[in-house]
């Protein structure tokens, strides 16, 4: 069973060669408040189910819920805080297969889990490669809110010719 990484040494870069298929990163929790939901919605997704508790009752959700885009943004923050790539910035090449399973609600504590599902060196840029991850975000009850697949650009070690993937 692969080891679960929670907080690699902050600031230390991680390279493509540091990962293997099956590696897992699990984050700590992030508490979502009503005010966070309202603030995000006012700026980025001004719809009734995100802005107004009374109006939200007349939507398919029947209550105030966070934007799916906010759930994705919180997921990104969780994985940054967990030092997914150590001191190496997270650079996305592709985001796909986004599925919203359940809404984020005020009071939820979100957690994210990222599993490495593929690693491949770049064919055109030998100093980097791609790492595909399956990312799942859950709430405090363990309910899956969103699943997605990320393809990240990850640098190779400066001496990568000597290291096999």
From TrEMBL:
Gene3D superfamilies: Hotdog Thioesterase (3.10.129.10)
SUPFAM superfamilies: Thioesterase/thiol ester dehydrase-isomerase
Domain called MaoC-like: residue spans: 29-123
Pfam families the record matches: MaoC_dehydratas
InterPro entries found in the cross-reference section: HotDog_dom_sf, MaoC-like_dom, MCH/BMMD
Domain of life of the source: Bacteria
Alphabetized PANTHER family for the sequence: BETA-METHYLMALYL-COA DEHYDRATASE, MONOAMINE OXIDASE-RELATED
Protein name: Acyl dehydratase
Organism encoding this protein: Ralstonia solanacearum
